[in-house]
Amino acid sequence: MSKLTSMALAVAQYVPDGSSVAIGLALEHLIPFAAGHEIIRQQRRNLTLIGPISDILFDQLIGAGCVEKVKAAWVGNVSEGLAHCYRRAIEQSIPRDLVTEEHSNFTIGLALLAASLGAPYIPTRTLLGSDIPRQNPTFRQQESPLDGTPLLLVPAVNPDITIIHVQRSDEDGNAHLWGNAGITEQAMLAARDVILVAEEIVSRDVILSDPNRVLGPSFKVRAVVHEPWGAHPSAVSGYYNRDHLFYHEYHTRTRTAEGFQNWLDEWVLNVPDRASYVAKLGEERVRSLDVKEHRYAAPVDYGY
Amino acid sequence: MDYTPRELMVVCAARQIHDGENVFVGMRLPLIAFALAKRTHAPNCIGIFEAGIVRDVPAAELLYTMGDAPNITGALWATNTMNVMGMLAAGDVHLGFIGGAEVDRYGNLNTSMIGDWKHPSVRLPGSGGAADIASLSQRLAIIMQHDRHRLRERVDFVTSPGYGYPNEQGPAGTTWRKRVGLPRGGPAALITTLGVFTFDPENGEALLQSYHPGTTIEKVQEQTGWKLRLAADCVETVPPSAQELKVIREYDPNGVWTG
Prior knowledge:
Chain A has twelve helices and twelve strands. Chain A is an alpha/beta fold. In chain B, helix 2 (29-39) packs across helix 8 (242-251).
């Protein structure tokens, strides 16, 4: 069954106001910026964002007023430093109040893993002695029933929707993701609904030729969106490199609320869709990020 | 010899890596320290990235983030975060590197918020993997800018636990870590723009091990928010060798991170 749809329809249908949205799960690459920008254009409100190191997509969604709560390990600009919108929201309630439940990369992964296993929580020894469990009211500390040692219990986090950018997918949502996955697999399995955004739509045969590379079960996927360059300015291994300069420009231009609004108008609100965004980037910039030298893996033999 | 403060910090960081160790690398200066150690005294060290990457050779190009495409090409293992964090939790990581906005005399780090938690005056990005690396690696090395408002008697928020604090149950140090339930570890080195500290595991206190060429113990004290204690053999930091600088500059020719 084809689940192929447009980004506008996928967001309209599966990301209602008030949803909890896991996004940016592979850390610094494969970040679904195109999906985030569509969420901003459709003026979603009161979202809960879930992620590990989310880079500037979280900052943009927060600055645009879409977000009520963040359950994340880190919100900033990875190659530049602090996130200005995140700071303004917490320090000055601009554009609105923001609640955070602090995590580390490990605990947000454990929370999604617990959900993916149907477990109420997962015990760990990380963060014992950190103030993070004191800040985040969802954590519990308890002695191990086995040996009495202290444990941190990380409760399951079930996203309403997980949005994932992949290299290639078929129309049904059978997808290949390569490179490091961060906590993508856990978030996919933990979610009620999944939107897959793919650089390329390929045939079912291509995906099933290498089942070990498949990200997860397509029955979790509700919508498949074909969106070339949909992860820009983050990298997509085998498709394009990270646009470091874009992060620098964003960092510089968003120091003030007015500067952010100006950036948002230019790169999101006045850009109707991803194709227009890529056109705006321009041929020269796009070419400078292209893969310089392809490195194909050796084929494997699934014969019998 | 001419070198930048960051080049010296990279050299100090590389010296923390022993041959054959599994190192949680992180980004920026530690990443270059890994490349330097690999090319000099620790050819068999392994670099682990929390995004889910394991490498035994540094990426072919300078990285801005661990998720840059060149860090995937030729990796020993491209996997997920839970597998590498699981190795960390299981005790397989010898050394972890982290940076911080604030550190205190017991090696506790803050990268979360300055001021009152409910109304912070500065909201920092948060833990990322830092709190996990501080909790679970066998040894921790901290790299940061040295100034008085960053090296404080006590940090406002303990994102990444070092040696804790003395309390009614006992002193700071390895016994504090055991009391709160951390399985191992603790800071082994605090590398700053002015010097290198080690820690006394008995009470968790930072000891100035060396001060960088061009500064003095007095100047380090001026920029440190607690009364310095000196290691018994506190000396001037050994400057980078020509070979070390050559490797650093080959890896970061434009001084993106080390300039």
